[in-house]
Amino acid sequence: MSTPNAFKRHLITAALPYANGPVHIGHIAGCYLPADIYVRFLKMQGNDVCFVCGSDEHGVPITIKAKNEGVTPQEIVDRYHSLMQEAFFGLGISFDTYHRTSDPLHHKTASDFFLHLYEKGVFEEKETEQYFDPVEKQFLADRYIVGTCPKCGHDHAYGDQCEACGASLSPTELIDPKSTLSGEVPVLKKTVNWFLPLDAFQEKLTDFIGSKKSYWKSNVYGQCMSWLQQGLHARAMTRDLDWGVKVPVGNADGKVLYVWFDAPIGYISATKAFHGEDWEKYWKSPDTRLVHFIGKDNIVFHCLIFPAMLMAHGGYNLPENVPANEFLNLEGKKISTSRNWAVWVHEYLNEFPGREDELRYVLTSIAPESGDSEFTWSDFQARVNNELVAILGNFVNRVMVLYKKFFDSTIDADVSSFSRNIHNQVVEGAFQNVSHNLHQYKFKNGLIAAMEVARHGNRFLTETEPWKLFKTDPLATRAILNDCLLLTGQLSFLLYPFMPHTSKRLLNLLNLPNSENTPAWESKVQFSKGHILSEPQHLFTKIDDAQMEIQREKLNSVVEVDHQPGELNFPAEKAEVSFEDFTKMDIRVGEILSAEKVKKADKLLHLTVDVGIKQISLVSGIAQYFAPEVLPGTKVCVLLNLAPRKIRGVMSQGMILMAENPDGSLRFVQSDAATGSIVG
Length: 680
What we know:
This protein is α+β, with helices and mostly antiparallel strands. The chain folds into 3 domains: 4-123 and 197-325, HUPs (Rossmann fold), CATH 3.40.50; 365-568, Isoleucyl-tRNA Synthetase, Domain 1; 573-679, CATH 2.40.50.140. Helices cover 39% and strands 17% of the residues. Strands 17, 18, 19, 20, 23 and 26 form a 6-stranded antiparallel β-sheet that branches. Strand 1, helix 1 and strand 2 (48-55) form a beta-alpha-beta unit. Helix 2 packs across helix 3 and helix 5 runs antiparallel to helix 6. The N and C termini lie far apart (69 Å).
């Protein structure tokens, strides 16, 4: 393994998030925050770094969501591209460019890449029988077929992989396959597609992965070797679909590039978008280092399939490292986007304004680096209150308040070095420990090492008690506080990769230059005679119980039966009710007259519905699935005699009946009967 500083430049990629929903904290903790910390650290060391990402905007789930909402796929990806981009930048994720795979530049890049392999004769053109959903009238992507694994008997294996035993599968190997779109048994239908013969790259990939054994994460290396030991097989790189990058060869009407062929090329097109004609230096120069940050569910694609594509093309660098993280769970359960069991980043930023770094700190503290970890609101509150407020914030505030009280916030002589060597030892040790851990992708340990300087500062203040010393020795008091100012300045640099907003606030408190440029690693802090510090301000404030209760109530309002998107896994039957209980429900056919978003509530829509005998106001948590402008005129079924209640200040006078598809998306329960007709 070469050290990062041995390379002239670094290309860092973060997995392209899929543009069919918002970004949640599991995404951030698993991929984007560690990538951002690493990039900020490399840039502080003066490295030439290109940090790219973008929205993954093709594939079957996009088309299904568009169909359910009655809009085009482009409208879906436009909506979520903007939402995700704003969430990333709001949290301080410092991409050099955030691109998108629906961009014409990407379409040309992916098309040219495919054509290059095609003209080299890399692909195998095959007529095969593919599963076709007779109800939805479309061919099924591998992930939209589930059945029993022939290797281990797991009854919810996907068409490309069994996540229970890790076996690589083809859809036709599944026992009792079913379509996750309709729940029906799919039929086999002939079609022609182009296959990448991964088996032809088995030896090269084995050598490539084997060379990483000593320094890749064990979970990454182990999963790759497991796939290699099972033996690789040819994999289709095209799909029968009308949404995506068109296959650029003859006789390919109605076919697009497989999303997992298309998406990683998005890293290349994003680099082109940022660097223009210089893009090749970051992909083909031997003195450039490529690192992919991903979650563990993307290991195979980034470590085997994409490298095989690059090998087949020729001239491209292979990844030097792929530091994949495990999963972050939420309040004792797996995060589920289909069930809204998630903490959405854009909602967090709206509900906790100015607290971006609190979330960055907590997610780094519990990062799932070597195993799954868990986020709870109680732990979030405890870490903010007991660590950021009580340790870091307390130290800085004590120093600033004492300097104002005793010396009117004014420095009386040049200050550039510590008066006690112990501080040099602590700071130098912190920079070394943070650097060592970040080079090893151990961000949690790096943050602990940085925070040790604040802990040291608090201990130093407690031991020296400058507030008592001032009466008898004001010079000694000033020396103590000057040391603490220098410690505060060093903290601003140590914490910059982890908490960039806090780093800038520290420099503002010290009234030191605070440009938009990345500070240098191990920068020195100095104050000139007459320098005036800013007014003391709290870095952080406590999170109260009421705020946490609101967040827990939001989660508890979500349906609790969980499943992974794509699985045919339905809730168990509910308890039996009497016929008399059923007849108490007044369910009527209604027509939506108007729909608008509820302010400060991204999941809620306010609907006005005509139910024949009157018009009623409803609040429904369907904003994730339906754009409000397409809803007027839609026929729905409404439970009319549900007790009214206020939701976010809007009166809701009933409930719209919804059905949940096996993939987690929602559809209205509808009837062609006249508005006002009774259902029952």
